[in-house]
Amino acid sequence: MTADFTDFLIPDTAVSVAGLTDYMRLLLEQDEQLRQIWVIGEVSSANNHRSGLFFTLQDPDGQAAIKCVVWNGQLPKLMQRPTVGEQLIVLGSIKLYPARGEYQLSVWQALPAGVGLQALRYQQLRNRLEAEGLLDPQRKRSLPSHPQTIAVVTSPTAAAWGDIQKTLKQRYPGLHVLFAPATVQGEQAPESIVKAIERVEKDGRAEVIILSRGGGAVEELACFNDERVVRAVANCTIPIITGIGHQRDESLVDLVADENVHTPTAAAERVVPALADLYNQHQQRVVSLQQVVQRELETADNQLQGLRERLQRLRLDKQVQQQMQALIWQRQKLVQITSVKLQQATQYLEMLRQKLTTLDPKAVLQRGYAVVRQEDGMTVRNASELAMGQELVIQLGQGEVKVRVTELIKPPRRQGRQDLHG
After folding, report:
1. Could you tell me which residues come within 8 angstroms of residue 54 by beta carbon, excluding any fewer than 6 positions away?
2. Cα–Cα distances in angstroms (integers) from residue 413 to residues 147, 384, 416, in the given order
3. What is the rounded distance in angstroms from the CA atom of residue 107 to the CA atom of residue 78?
4. 229-251 exposure pattern, b = at least 16 Cβ within 10 A, e = fewer
5. What pLDDT sits at residue 1?
6. CA angle (268, 122, 229) in 5-degree steps
7. How far is the C-alpha of 194 from the C-alpha of 390, rounded, in Å?
8. Using N-to-C axis directions, what is the helix angle for 227-234 and 115-131, rounded to 10°?
9. From the centroid of its chain, how far is CA 76?
10. What is the rounded distance in angstroms from the CA atom of residue 93 to the CA atom of residue 28?
């Protein structure tokens, strides 16, 4: 009776502890997901051992924990060394040790949680872009040297838009600016930026695009690492320069753009030359051309004198006359050509001088315009800045007058620029 009961409780299929442990080890270590898994938690304990660093990773509420180990050969490769109290995201594989009947996580890499996760995703996307050749410097295009029409993609309420307008107006008056408003912060920003770029491409007039935003925290600039925005910039048929207000790290948009600078103002300065600089450059070219002409004339005179002396010694009258006639003809041709070029350069220089003259505020006052200032010297640009009875100083072409505000008239609606709205 006892033997029968024993046979019933202990069947032939019973396995040893080692057999069961080995079976569990195979289940854990051969599972595809567990062979390479990311785990997030807080380091609750950490102990150095001669073979490696042993630590425990647990959930913030303490309801679950897992033992981890980083072997000595892997420790120098960690981006973040596990320290008690820190939140980490670790990469490793599950291992089971039969002697203790315990499983633990063999760690290959450890990153700070949160920012570390963002850095990982950033690096993964960057690696894909590099593999596709989108970060290759050879694919970047040169910006046009003298564009007549540019497009700006940024927020209409941001200071960046005002800085860009001011800079463009000062450096290159008469430039045609197309404004494609977009949201540049938050969850809606990536789609908004992509659509703004598409509108500019569809319009077809812009020769270069400024994609811009002022400074901000890392999370506020996250849209410029969004894959949708990065690919829209990389695939745009129009050259793009980014002017995003951050100094620490380049965004992925900066890396795929044809050119990038660190501020909106710098982007505006880069896309157009300063009119005053052009004037100085052309003036220098005129001086250089005059010097070249003078040297050529002196060289020709010296050659002519040398030929005269040579012919006098040889007494070859006929050959002398032929050479003199040829030199006279060449000299006339040189003088004619250089005169035409000098006249063209002088006319262009005069045009630039007249254009600069029209920008002189004093010249504007001489034509009958006036500058209105408050008592503290601040220039009045908008009637909404004034109050009834306020005293003002008006600067004329000759002298100044003081007046008092007796009536405020609402200004008409301005139409100084063209917006591109989706």
Report:
1. 46, 47, 48, 67, 68, 69
2. 28, 13, 10
3. 9
4. bbbbbbebebbbbbbbbbeeebb
5. 46
6. 45
7. 48
8. 30
9. 34
10. 9
Number of residues that this document lists for the chain: 422
Structure tokens at 98: 């039969």
Query: Has residue 247 got a pLDDT over 80?
Result: no
Q: What is the DSSP letter of 32?
A: T
Contact 56, 64 (CB under 8 A): no
Give the tens place of pLDDT for each residue, 308-349: 777 666 666 677 677 888 889 988 888 888 888 888 888 888
Q: Give 85-98 pLDDT, tens digit per residue.
A: 888 889 999 998 88
What is the identity of the amino acid at 294? Answer: Q
The answer to whether the beta carbons of residues 252 and 326 sit under 8 Å apart is no
262's tokens: 């660190």
Residue 191: its H or E element: helix 189-203
Which tokens is 280 given?
A: 């100085």
Region of residue 64 (phi > 0: left; psi between -120 and 50: alpha; otherwise: beta): beta
Laid out side by side, the sheet with 259-261 consists of 259-261, 240-244, 208-213, 149-154, 176-181, 418-419
- CA-to-CA distance for 181 and 422, rounded, in angstroms? 9
What is the per-residue burial (b if ≥16 Cβ within 10 Å, else e) of 194-203? Answer: bebbebbbee
pLDDT band of residue 419 (cuts 50, 70, 90) is low
Q: Is this prediction's pTM over 0.90?
A: no
Question: Which 3 state secondary structure label does DSSP give 274?
Answer: coil
Backbone angles phi, psi at 29, to 5 degrees: -80, -20
List for the chain the helix, strand, coil content (%; round to 5).
45, 20, 35
DSSP element (H, E) containing 401: strand 400-404
| The two structure tokens encoding residue 340 | 């035409």
Mean pLDDT of the chain: 84
Give the C-alpha separation, 289 to 275, whole Å: 21
The DSSP symbol for 110 reads E
Q: Which position has the higher pLDDT, 328 or 408?
A: 328
